Amino acid sequence: MKLTMIATVCLLALNAGGASAADAPRGYLGASYGNVNVDAGTAGEADADLWDLQGLVSLRLGPGVTGELAVDAAQYSGGDAIWSPTGRLFFDVGGSRVGGFVGGTSSDGFDLTGGGLEGRFNLAPDWRADTSFGYGSGDVDAWAARGQLRFFASDNTRLDGYANFVSFDTDFGGLDGWAFGLGGEHLFEGTPVSLFGRLEHNELNDVDLASDSLRVGVRWNFGGGTLRDRSMDGQSSPGFAELFGGDLLFGLASALAMVPGGDGDGGSGGDD
Question: What's the pLDDT at 182?
């Protein structure tokens, strides 16, 4: 399975660098709950619960080189589990980092794998910008791009705003969509525990589908440091599934792509 190969390669890369790494690994284990409201126009509205488990480890592999591995497991109420590993390699450029990623996402009967380029740029002492651009292939072909602005209100309080574009090329036509989100995280001083939350709005163009979601969660952080100290690690970078659709765009677009006889227009969207 492609996802197993990707995860194995990423783990081997991190382990290989661990012996010579100058810094201890940093990362987190987290869990979250979310509620998603789907508006399908004339087909009506529906609500779904979303449970999610996340893990990330970031490790210095050498001077100016950092490797990261993130794994996400999500479960929508009444749906199949979605597994998404993402591996990254970054290079320090001044006070910023640039690099690339590989990853995939898989649920019962649907797979997408790919990669792309990312950058994390310090704009000012309290401001940072993240950018991502990627391509994925599998049961559909997809292009995605994301821009994110992050503000540190204090060493341990971070606020985020982002916009995410994704374009799917299916056997039944093209689908474009947008996700817009606001989020934040607070690490309790003197503890490894942080709380995070996110509001997100998704829209699919050319079909009458949109969604709004709210997610809240908790993380256990390891490796030390404040949120500002960890700002160049993947603390809030999008995983592969997030980049290619956000909370709901990916699930909606993939479902439309697999509907027998679907044509990529509003007629097939009502089935979801």
Answer: 97
